[in-house]
Design a protein that fits this description.
With 297 residues, the protein is of the alpha/beta class. Helices cover 36% and strands 23% of the residues. It is globular and about 60 Å long. The structure holds guanosine-5'-diphosphate (GDP) and magnesium ion.
Length: 297
């Protein structure tokens, strides 16, 4: 059968995690309009008749600003090596700049076959697509370009078929019922972080880490107890996260709990405390404590 790993590479916010979720058919990675949403390497596994495709969602391509983005960029780079295929995700509605072309060429040079998913075609004029494809071809980006919309599900079947074709024959790496290498415990923390990314503005979400202290099913009950620490970088951020008489936090927790319940298929009793750890994103020992830069969580 066709089996292999596909590294999903591209700029921050290009739409990588959204595309991986759509390809896998389940939410394996959180998504938000803010860059730096994905901090870890996450595997999403697509099982089909005669094929297993393992997508490696990555944090994306960054210029390193602090120790955390440094680790994130390192994760992206190591993920792009030793895979069967690189799926380069390009945000089509932003056009094609010379810097995009040099990035694409850089990853082609890594040696694995490459395919470009030119995404977000739902929010751009259709006539730009052939012009951009021509530009890529003329500039020597020698691989297939597939225009898709992850949001609308457009051309996803075609992309999947092409990926499948390009993978080698082999044995599956995961059991058939596995969709992600991440635990439910990890996803619950990520769901919390996604809701914070969606609800708060500016620099607050980027400085937030979520630590899962408790993730436990109640004995004999269809219910999970989840206790989290929401760690932020500054005490004024803590005040904003909590809001007047706790109102902002309450809303965010309710929002997160709803999705956790849908994800786990049962009730969740959610508690969370907001803590401040000054500038943790520049403190490698704290980053490690929060689980960043490790292969597994
Ligand atoms: N209109 C449109 N928006 C998209 C599409 N794919 C992703 N997005 C949005 O782009 C933003 C970044 O997506 P995300 O998957 O987190 O990007 P990543 O940083 O590359 O993983 C989110 O707000 C998504 O909802 C698409 O096909 N069409
Ligand atoms: Mg992402």
């Amino acid at each position: 059968m066709k089996c292999g790993t596909v590294a999903v590479i591209g700029r921050a916010n290009a739409g990588k995690s959204t595309l991986v979720n759509v390809l896998v058919g389940e939410k394996v990675a959180i998504v938000s309009p803010k860059p730096q949403t994905t901090r870890d390497r996450i595997l999403g596994v697509l099982n089909e008749e005669g094929a297993q495709i393992v997508f490696v969602d990555t944090p994306g391509i960054y210029r390193s600003q602090n120790a955390l983005t440094g680790v994130m960029m390192h994760t992206t780079e190591t993920s792009a090596k030793d895979v069967d295929l690189i799926l380069f995700v390009h945000d089509g509605h932003k056009g094609v700049a010379d810097t995009d072309i040099s990035l694409m060429k850089k990853y082609i040079a890594y040696g694995a076959p490459m395919l470009i998913a030119y995404t977000k075609t739902d929010i751009m004029p259709e006539e730009n697509i052939p012009a951009d494809a021509k530009k890529l071809y003329e500039e020597g980006v020698c691989c297939d370009v597939v225009p898709v919309s992850a949001r609308r599900g457009k051309n996803i079947a075609k992309l999947k078929a092409l990926i499948r074709e390009m993978l080698p024959e082999g044995e599956p790496l995961f059991p058939e019922d596995v969709v992600s290498d991440r635990s439910e415990r990890f996803m619950v923390g990520e769901i919390m972080r996604e809701k914070i990314l969606l609800k708060y503005d500016k620099e607050i979400p980027h400085g937030v880490a979520v630590i899962v202290n408790t993730f436990k099913k109640r004995e004999g009950k269809e219910m999970y107890d989840v206790d989290l620490d929401i760690v932020c970088e500054k005490s004024n951020h803590k005040a904003i996260l909590i809001g007047k008489q706790g109102s902002a936090l309450k809303e965010t927790l309710a929002f997160a709990r709803k999705e956790m319940e849908a994800f786990l298929g049962c009730k969740v009793f959610l508690t969370a405390y907001v803590k401040v750890k000054d500038d943790w994103r520049d403190r490698p020992e704290l980053m490690r404590e929060f689980g960043y830069g490790k292969e597994e969580n």
